[in-house]
Amino acid sequence: MAVYEVKQAKPAPSNNRGLIYWCRQNLFSSIGNSILTLLCLYFLYSVLPPLVNWLLIDATWSGSQQDIVKEGARWIFIIEKFDQFIYGFYPQALHWRPNLVIIITALFIAAMMNFKHVPLKLALMVLYPIISIIFIYGGVFGLEVVDTPKWGGLMLTVIVAAVGIIASFPIGIVLALGRQSHMPIVKTLCVGFIEFVRGVPLITILFMASVVLPLFFHDGIEFDKLLRALIGITLFQAAYIAEVVRGGLQAIPKGQYEAAKSMGLSYWQSMLLIILPQALKISIPNLVGSFISLFKDTTLVLIIGLFDILAMVTLTNSDPEWLGYEVEGYVFVTFIYWVFCFSMSQYSKSVERRFNTELK
Amino acid sequence: MSSQQAMISMENVNKWYGDFHVLKDVNLTIKKGEKVVICGPSGSGKSTTIRCLNHLEKFQQGNIVINGTELIEDVKVVRHIRSQVGMVFQHFNLFPHLTVLDNLVLAPTWVHKKPRKEAIETAMYYLERVKIANQAKKYPNQLSGGQQQRVAIARCLCINPEIMLFDEPTSALDPEMVSEVLDVMIELANEGITMVCVTHEMGFAKKVADRVIFMDQGQIIEENDPETFFEQPESDRLQLFLDQILSH
What we know:
Largest sheet of chain A: none
Largest sheet of chain B: 6 strands, mixed
Number of domains of chain B: 2
Organism (chain B): Motilimonas pumila
Number of strands of chain A: 0
Radius of gyration of chain A: 28 Å
CATH topology of the domain at 76-90 and 146-353 in chain A: MetI-like fold
Oligomer: heterodimer
Distance between the termini of chain A: 51 Å
Order of helices and strands of chain A: HHHHHHHHHHHHH
Number of helices of chain B: 10
Strand content of chain B: 25-35%
Shape of chain A: globular
Pfam families (chain B): ABC_tran
CATH topology of the largest domain in chain B: Rossmann fold
CATH class of the largest domain in chain B: Alpha Beta
Low-confidence stretches of chain A: none
Keywords (chain B): Amino-acid transport, ATP-binding, Nucleotide-binding, Transport
Number of helices of chain A: 13
Mean pLDDT of chain B: 90
CATH superfamily of the largest domain in chain B: P-loop containing nucleotide triphosphate hydrolases
Shape of chain B: globular
Strand content of chain A: under 5%
Family (chain B): Belongs to the ABC transporter superfamily.
Distance between the termini of chain B: 45 Å
CATH architecture of the domain at 76-90 and 146-353 in chain A: Orthogonal Bundle
GO molecular function, one term (chain B): ATP hydrolysis activity
Structural class of chain B: alpha/beta
Low-confidence stretches of chain B: none
Radius of gyration of chain B: 18 Å
Order of helices and strands of chain B: HEEEHEEHEHHHEHEHEEHH
Largest interface: A-B, 23 and 26 residues
Helix content of chain B: 25-40%
C-alpha cells in the first residue's frame, strides 16, 4: 500500500500581475534602471505639457489675424494657405481634377488587390497612369491644359515620389539581374551605371538634369523641367533599388537556382517564378526604407525651381500679409511627411506578413 | 544496337575546377531502365558526375549523350535534356514561396505547356503515390524532411522524365525518415524508370541496383553487379571503403 506524506503548504505565490508588478519589473528593476526611468519622466514632464499647450490648447483655429489673442500655434495660417500647400499653383477651379485622381487611385488599388484575372490587372496597370496624367495635365477631351510649372505642393511631392518609386522599381530589378549576369558587356554596363549613380548626390543629378542636359539639345528644343527631374530621380532611385534587390538575390540559396534550372525553366522563367518572388520578399524592408528616403528626398526638386510642399511653405511665408508663420508651416509639413512615411512603413509590415510562407 | 538502347553515355569526360582535376576520363553507359548506384568517399566526384548529366556542371572534355541527344552548350539543347531528366537534391530544394501543389504544377505548365487543370490532376496523382496528397495545400516548410523529399520526388515525376537522378537524397534526413524516402525510391525503381543514384545507403543499393559504381579521386575505380561489388570487391580501395562504411 502506498504511503502518502503530507506536504507542507507552500506560501501563496507573490503577486505577479497588475500595474505595480509591471512597473517594478520593467521600470524599476535596478538602481540604474530607476534613475533612467525618473530622468525620462522628468524629460516628458518638462517637454510634453508646453508642447500640447502650444499645439492644441493655446492654439488659434479660426478667425482672422486680428483675432489672435492666445500664445499658441496660429493654425489659421495653415487653413488660409491650405490649398496652396496641397495643389501649388494649380488653378483653383480645376482642383477637382487632382481630387478625382485620388479617387481613381483608391479604386485602382482596391481593384489590384481584389481582382484575380491577370490580363485585366495588366490592362489596369497600363490604363491607370494614362488616365491620371490626362486628368492632371489635361489637353484632351476638352480638358484645359495645366502646365507642369503650375503643379506644386503636396500634389507635386506625391507625383514625384510615386513616379520615382514605380518607374525605378522595374529598372532597378533589371539592373540587379544585369549585375549578376554572366554576359560581360551587360554586367559592366550595369555595374558602371549603379556605381556612378550611387557615387553622386541626388542634388547633382537634378542639377545635371536641369542645367547640363539642355546643353546637349539644339536651341528651341525645350523638354519639360519636371519631366527631366523625374527622369533624374528615377535613374537615381533605380541604382539604389538595384543594390537592395541584389542583396535579396544573394540571399537565395544556390539550390533554388539549381532546382529551377534542373526542371528546364528558362532564365527568365526561373527569375520571374522562383528567384525574384523570394528575393523581393526578403528585400521588402529595405525597399520600403529606400522608398521612404526617396519620398523625403523629393523635396530637393526645389533647387531646380519646382515647388513641392516644403517650397510652398517657404514661399507662402514671404507673403507680406502673412509674415512670421514659419513655425506653423514647418510643423505642418513635418506632420504631413511623417504621416506618409509612417504609413509606408506600416504598409510594408503588413505586406511582409502576407507574404510570409516560412512559418505560416 | 546496344548503343541505341543507351539512355546515358559518357565518354572520356574530364572536368577541372581551375587546376583541380575533378573528373578524370569518366566513361559510363547506362541502358534504358537500368538502376545504377554510385558511391565513393566525399570529394570523389560522384555528385559532379551526375550533375554533368543535366548540365548543372560544365565539363571541359569528352562527350555526353542523353537519350540520343548530345549535350552541347546550347540553351535549347540543355533545356530539352533537362525536360527529360528529373533531379532530386540532398537538400530537397523545394520552392518555399509556393504550396506543395504549385511546386509540382510549375514545370508541367511552364516548360511542358500543359493546361493547369491537367497538371493539377497529374500532380495529385503523384502526391498520392508518395502518400502525401493530404498536404497539397501546405507550404514546404510546414512539412518534415522526409515529406519534403517525397514531394521533391513527386515534383520530378510530374514532368514524366526518362531519367531520374538522385544526389544523396537521404543524407540530409533524420534517421527515422530515411526509410520513407527509400521506400518511394524502391517503388519507383520497380517501375522501370532509368535511375542514377548517388547514395551511401548500401541496403538500397543491394536491393535495387542493377550495377554499383565506386568512384574515387574523380575516377571510376570499379563497377559491378551489387552481389559481386559487396562480396568480392576487386580493388583495395573499394575494400577499404566498404570496411569503413559497413564496420559500424
